[in-house]
Amino acid sequence: MNKVLVSDALSPEGLKVFKDSKELTVDVKTDLKPDALKEIIKDYDALVVRSATKVTKDVIAAAKKLKVIGRAGVGLDNVDLEAATQKGIIVMNTPGGNTISTAEHTFSMILALSRNIPQANSSMKKGEWKRSKFMGVELYNKVLGIVGFGRIGSEVAKRAGSFGMKVLAYDPFLSKQVAESIGVEIAELKKVLEESDYITVHTPLTNETRHMISDKEFGIMKKGVRIINCARGGIIDEPALVKAIKEGRVAGAAMDVFESEPLCAENELLKLDNVITTPHLGASTEEAQVNVAIEVAEIVRDALLGRGIRNAANYPCLEAEVCKILNPYINLGEKMGMFAGQLVEGRFAEVTISYSGQITKYDLAPVTMALVKGLLTPILKETVNFVNGISLLKERGMKLLESKSAQEGEFVNLIQLDIKTDKETKSIFGTLSGNKQPRIVKIDDYYLELYPVGEMIFIRNLDKPGLIGNLGTLMGKNGINIAAMALGRNKPGDKAISVWSVDNQVSPEVQEKIKKLENILTVKVIKI
What are the extents of the domains in the chain? Predict the structure, then answer.
């Protein structure tokens, strides 16, 4: 009999899934202190949480039987994923349960912002009748810019279409063919910012998307634009937004999420009459809460009873003996994907994965899943996992091709990843070292040996004397310690590449300084 612990509030419909299974018993114990959770977790096979319970490394270490952790929701920041993985515990979430709820809340915010509904209601409650003060605007024939066109973004687009809006969408993983098939124009971010009357963001919060809309972006927007954020706090630079509103460039904003939550009463956004705020209500509908509760209960139940794994954030294969052999390649594949996802320029069109050597006698589906997950993670973050990555890739109109060759080439086992975009084709080759550590051994035509982990600076340069010395001096002046260096060239004096692993974060300011060094062609920071 498998025992399930539910440590955060879960709807009765979700609990019913567990109670209806004769092979499971469920205990609901909410508001547990960390020490109390550590004390009892040893007795349970599965743990179900929302956002309140912190599943720390210590909690995981105390678990003796735990096989599955289920998160009712998208974010996994309250679960130590690395510790769970090391202990062989499957971690699953429910990325699709609040799609409709968040899309509807986004459109509610667009309507409320257009017609000044909260402000007018507040005025009426005071006994006022000021029609002229709350003059609104129509949505018909307006341009809605959607930044991030996943499931929520596409649902927002459907609703915009019914109001006669034109939709521009920016998403580096969305093909033009898929966008056009649903009546949406795919565009670069600059065009979306310049031409939109409304801009709504629907991306995860990553290092790349933090403050992706700031002073520079507000500076190129159409005057009178309206901004909506029901995704993640921090995507929009709040002080920059306040400044743009006060200067009259932005007509108004509707914000459901904030950089610091709960929102401080002194926050400048609350002092602006043309800003609508709600306390992170995107997923707060009865239906969404029921949906995620049922979904998390079903995926945890099925995992415990051997019926298959869905929405796994950290574990693509389950057969112990096969996993033992493939786990190093799964790790390699995910790291290769993450490296490529940050390196390649342009809109993805086709992804080809080629396997060669002795590993081809195994079912390599888990490695492919890991590679695709890694590829999409820099943009989609926690909404992509080992199980849904391939379907998300195909949803966005990208082709996925695979090939196998048992013949050994330069390496006993080799994974080759080829990515074709609208701007370039990039090839990355990976294998394992003698101690089964992941190595990238070739990028396009350049041979090198790179351990893809931590913060790295990828540089394309001319192979001229002084590069290493100049870069080392610059790093030293900025307090950045160089941990390792990988160099690749074809012939002396020609173009070359180098990858510098560093122990410290490389700021945008330092990146700009590197770009200005002699013989540097391009610079990109990659984080794994």
Answer: 1-97+283-315, 99-277, 317-425, 454-527
pTM: 0.73
User: Quick one: tokens of 467?
Assistant: 């590069």
Average pLDDT over residues 315-319: 60
Q: Which residue out of 151, 202, 226, 232 is catalytically annotated?
A: 232
Mean pLDDT within 84-100: 85
Neighbouring C-alpha atoms within 13 Å toward the C-beta of 367:
30
**pLDDT computed for residue 317 by the predictor:** 56
Task: Please state the three-class secondary structure of 130-167 as a single string.
Answer: CHHHHCCCCCCCCEEEEECCCHHHHHHHHHHHHCCCEE
Given pLDDT bands bounded at 50, 70 and 90, which one contains residue 77?
A: confident
Instruction: Give the C-alpha separation, 223 to 416, whole Å.
Output: 47
In this predicted structure, what is the pLDDT of residue 463? 92
CATH number of 99-277: 3.40.50.720
Give the burial string for 176-214 (b: 16+ CB within 10 Å, else e).
Answer: eebbeeeebebbebeebbbbbbbbbbbbbbbebbebbbb
Half-sphere exposure of 254 (CA within 13 A, CB side): 25
Q: Which of 130-144, 380-394, 487-501 has the lowest mean pLDDT?
A: 380-394
Do the domains 99-277 and 1-97+283-315 match in fold? yes
Report helix, strand or coil for 46: strand
C-alpha–C-alpha distance, residues 382 and 337, integer Å: 15
Average pLDDT over residues 333-337: 96
347 counts as catalytic: no
Confirm whether 395 is a catalytic residue.
Answer: no
Asked if pLDDT for residue 318 goes beyond 60, the answer is no
Residue 232 annotated to the active site: yes
**Under CATH, what is the fold of the domain 1-97+283-315?**
Rossmann fold (3.40.50)
Residue 151 CB coordination number (10 Å): 18
Task: Round to whole Å and give the CA distance between 229 and 258.
Answer: 9
Give yes or no for residue 517 having a pLDDT over 90. Answer: yes
Q: In CATH, what class is 454-527?
A: alpha beta
Of 151, 202, 280, 439, the catalytic one is 280
Instruction: Compute the distance between CA of residue 392 and CA of residue 373 in angstroms, rounded to an integer.
Output: 9
Class of domain 317-425: alpha beta
128, 138, 247, 261: which one is catalytic? 261
